[in-house]
Design the sequence.
């Protein structure tokens, strides 16, 4: 799939997107992706882990340029639908603000008649979001220090930061 940035992508009524300070709910996102025509709903949950490269993390702080990030979410959904016509529903939610270890930072869910398309679409959505959406994270370390994660460094290293 290739991402093209059309100027006026409008989300479909059956899809759901948000950037929020509120805690994310697996049940809510699953429900938003469910449809009687689905044979599969694949959900990807990104969480705050307790370490990065062996260094103890106590929290992450996310910031986003919301209008552009939502346009990226809409474009991701449009790209998925161009390559997989039988996708029924797509939900992409990202949290902003300070999150503790174990809290969910991002949820992506895709409902399709078949599992292979649901898995492929979900992976495309999270990978594209991580590379294209203007969402930044700051890691807060146990020793009291903090540092912003460099998106360029993630891409150069080939890691999914």
Sequence:
């Amino acid at each position: 799939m290739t991402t093209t940035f059309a100027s006026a992508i409008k989300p479909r009524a059956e899809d759901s997107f948000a950037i929020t300070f509120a805690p994310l709910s697996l049940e809510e996102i699953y429900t938003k992706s469910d449809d009687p025509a689905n044979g599969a709903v694949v959900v990807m949950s990104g969480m705050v882990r307790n370490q990065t490269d062996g260094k103890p993390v106590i929290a992450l702080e996310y910031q986003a340029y919301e209008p552009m990030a939502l346009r990226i979410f809409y474009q991701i959904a449009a790209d998925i639908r161009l390559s997989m016509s039988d996708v029924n529903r797509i939900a992409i939610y990202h949290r902003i603000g300070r999150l503790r270890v174990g809290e969910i930072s991002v949820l992506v869910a895709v409902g399709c008649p078949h599992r292979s398309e649901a898995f492929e679409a979900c992976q495309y959505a999270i990978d594209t979001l991580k590379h294209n959406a203007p969402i930044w994270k700051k890691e807060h370390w146990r020793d009291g220090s903090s540092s912003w994660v460099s998106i360029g460094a993630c891409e150069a290293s080939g890691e999914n930061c």
Remarks:
- The chain has a mean pLDDT of 91.
